[in-house]
Amino acid sequence: MIVALLMGLVTFTAAQDEETGIPQAEVINDEGGVQLITGEVEYTVGFLTDFNRGAMNIALVNQALYVDRDFEGKTPISWQVLGEVLTDPFVSPFEYELNLPIMPRGPLRDLSGGDGEGVAVFGVMGYTNFRGTPYWESELEYTTGFTSYQTTREFELRYDIVGGKLLVWAPDYNQVFPSGFGEDRMLFTEDDPMMRIPAGWSVVNLDTEPFTLDRSATAIVDLIEQEQSLQPYDFSDLSYVEAFEELMERLRREYAFTEYKGIDWDAIYEEFLPRFEQATEDNDAVAYQFTMQDFVWAIPDGHIGASLPLTNDAFFRETDGGLGLAVRELDDGRILANFVLQGGPAAEAGMELGAELTAINGAPPLDRADKINIWAAPFSADHSRRIQELRYITRFETGEEVELSFINPESEEEQTVTVTAINERQSWSFSSVLRGAAGSDAQPITFEVLDSGYAYVRINSFSQYPELMFRIWEWIIDQLNDQNIPGLILDMRWNSGGYNLDRWLTGYFFEERRVIGNRAIYYTDIDEFFIDPLQVEEIIPPDDGRFYGGPIALLVSPACASACEFFSYNMTIDDRATVIGFYPSDGLGGNIKPVFMPDNVYFQFTVGRALTADGEIRLEGLGVQPDILVPVTEETLFSDDDVLLQTAIDHLDGATTIVFTSAGEITVGETVEAELVRGERVRFDFVTPDEGGLFDVVVSSDDPGLDTVLYIYLANDLSAPVLENDDDEELGLLTSAIRELEIPGGLPLVFEVGGFMDNDAGIFTITITPSGADVEEVEEVEDAVEEAVEDADEAEEVEEAEEADDDEAEEVEETEETEETDDENDE
């Protein structure tokens, strides 16, 4: 009986093929349709392991937007089915499985030209889930670059699928799906050849010609690691000189800032080629690594670097010797000793803290920087180079004799002494830009409320535990609002970067999206950098409405680098924060490309060019510039206080100073209208009637979004309110009300109205009435408020209805056009 039914089904399908001329798909293994997919994920990029335990998830995602050739739309979570990671995702390869639903999630798409019910098309993808729901939220989370389908870096096909596997679900045997890419090599376009597909779930292999279907009950779908900037070039099997040649070829084409920095690659090639050739000829690993070191230093970009363990001995030999001395340069050009080690060579020779260093070995101190290796190089910005030069000019080989000239404080006489460098690292550690950085066991974000009342938030890193970071961040935003914190200090001074979470984290300080800029990315096939208009970077406020609107001071230093700078830059948009520092941040404005070189040498260079919204260079060589550039003087250098933190507090004191405006007297039964501006509160004088009583004080507004706070003071003591109210709970409004307030007769009071966090603005009214009184004015005000809310809701419904009508009209128009086309074809 079953065999007969199957034969009938095959005959029916064949008849359909003869009628339409569309061939039936070739099925490799027909077990009635796929129910479960399993697979492996093998990867080379350190994205997961470097991200320090960002949760790895697998999802089946409806590709309706791609079928529509819509490359800007956002995939809803309702279009997804979650899978399960079976083995440790931080060990490659890892395994996963995913049970397919009986019915697909998300929309169907008719690929037959209007004759069919349509099919649902899906891809499998991996993503790091560190916020929101368990599903992939396309604007809020990273994809890992692991998908069932293959994409390409070819320019014309940069949005397209070019291979791999998709899953397709069909409701019956009358549906079609492309059997190839067509001449344009793009899927789901008019020139695609078609094939008829069976009902249910099938895996489509896009790497066969024509495409073939797998209908196994359990189908294997391995995920493919997509080409991306973090995917390394591997020249490790080449000779030293061959690897250098390959590296130079990539740098000439792909390095992001060649013209901006005026780099002459031909000159660099001519300089270093003979040294690589000699190292190759001699099979000299040490010479090779020292050549790599000098090569790295020749490119002025702080993102460029290499791991060169065979140079470590030279580094320690050249820097182990110290004089017990660290120095800093003042804004007036003098170089002062800001650290003198008790019992160290400099101290024993009579040098005092605060002494001006005038010469080293008979020459100006900074002249020595041109004669030694600055191992912290290369640098993108001059200010970062200068700070490191000042650190290295006081380092020597242990036992080396050094002549120092200096002028002690309270003296005008220059002294010249000879000292011997000893093996000491105290002065070396003191002069580090990372002095003050949190330890490796510290939380990525910390929070405290200072005695000033301002919140102090220190972001130590962007390179670990993103789930934890976002949970802490949300908690911090809640604390800022719940405690009505008047100002926030963000300390970014020792954050050396990590992953770019900046668009989301800074979103909590903006009520609306803001354009950050874009990036210029190199495409090999067109041999140029391209700024993709569909890849504009934006600050994205959270969906849950969390927002802090108070004033912000943000502290930076040259130790704030890369991802730290992207975060800090975002906070300069709309002057959202005031940046404070002795110097700008480090000035690293791009993303990196790893390269594996011979002898396990790791190299990286910058391939993405970060740009502002105006298309100008963002950050590279510039850093985040302080709005308040704190001078480096003797006073600030030797202060016992944290000068930048105190500057931030002083700034917020000014920024949070509330302006109080008097609106005159208000009496019982009176309704007064006034305007509220940000940073201002409006005060009303009220004298209670002689008989006293219970009173309602109600603040209203025609703007249902205006968030007010009502404060009540004794007229003879305005230092602190005796009562305050944020929201009108009885009416469910953001405006304020205090009802049934018992006031003794003749008591003078002050009613004060401000915005929430003193950050809202708008027109409001205030009314004072006896509690329970049937006062017409009060009813009118409350009715007006309710009516405003209803009007806003109705306006939104009308707008949605109009949009729906427009969509329906478009569908009717499309249907009519289709019918006209069918008529023309029939003719």
Brief overview, please?
The protein is α+β, with helices and mostly antiparallel strands. Helices cover 24% and strands 29% of the residues.
Overall description:
- The protein is α+β, with helices and mostly antiparallel strands and 827 residues long.
- It folds into four domains: 16-225, no CATH class; 321-430, Pdz3 Domain (Roll); 445-586 and 640-655, Alpha-Beta Complex (2-enoyl-CoA Hydratase, Chain A, domain 1); 659-784, Jelly Rolls (Sandwich).
- Helix 4 (240-254) runs antiparallel to helix 6 (265-282) and helix 6 (265-282) packs antiparallel against helix 7.
- It is flat and about 95 Å long.
Number of domains: 4
Q: Please give the radius of gyration in angstroms.
A: 34 Å
Mean pLDDT: 89
The span between the termini is 46 Å
Approximate helicity band: 10-25%
**So how many helices?**
17
Q: The biggest beta sheet, please?
A: 10 strands, mixed
Give unreliable regions as ranges.
1-16, 774-786, 806-827
SS content category: alpha+beta
**Beta-strand residue fraction:** 25-35%
* Morphology call: flat
Describe the oligomeric state of these chains in a short phrase: single chain
Question: How many E strands?
Answer: 47
What are the main properties of this structure?
827 residues; 4 domains; single chain; alpha+beta; 47 strands; six-stranded mixed sheet; disordered C terminus; Pdz3 Domain; disordered N terminus; ten-stranded mixed sheet; 2-enoyl-CoA Hydratase, Chain A, domain 1
SSE map:
Layout: H1 2-20, E1 26-30, E2 36-41, H2 47-50, E3 55-62, H3 64-67, E4 80-82, E5 84-85, E6 94-99, E7 120-129, E8 143-147, E9 149-151, E10 161-170, E11 175-178, E12 194-197, E13 200-205, E14 212-215, E15 218-220, E16 224-225, E17 233-234, H4 240-254, H5 258-261, H6 265-282, H7 285-297, E18 305-306, H8 312-319, E19 321-322, E20 325-329, E21 335-340, H9 345-348, E22 356-360, H10 382-392, E23 395-396, E24 401-407, E25 414-420, E26 422-423, H11 426-430, E27 445-449, E28 455-459, H12 466-482, E29 488-491, H13 502-505, E30 514-523, E31 528-531, E32 537-539, E33 552-555, H14 563-570, E34 578-581, E35 592-597, E36 601-606, E37 608-612, E38 628-629, H15 634-637, H16 643-655, E39 659-665, E40 671-676, E41 680-687, E42 693-700, E43 708-714, E44 723-725, E45 737-743, E46 748-755, E47 762-770, H17 776-826
Parallel strand pairs: 1-14, 2-15, 17-35, 28-29, 29-33, 33-34, 34-38, 39-41
Antiparallel strand pairs: 2-6, 3-4, 3-7, 5-6, 7-8, 7-10, 8-16, 9-10, 10-13, 11-12, 13-14, 18-36, 19-23, 19-26, 20-21, 22-24, 24-25, 27-28, 30-31, 30-32, 30-37, 35-36, 40-47, 41-46, 42-45, 42-47, 43-44, 43-46
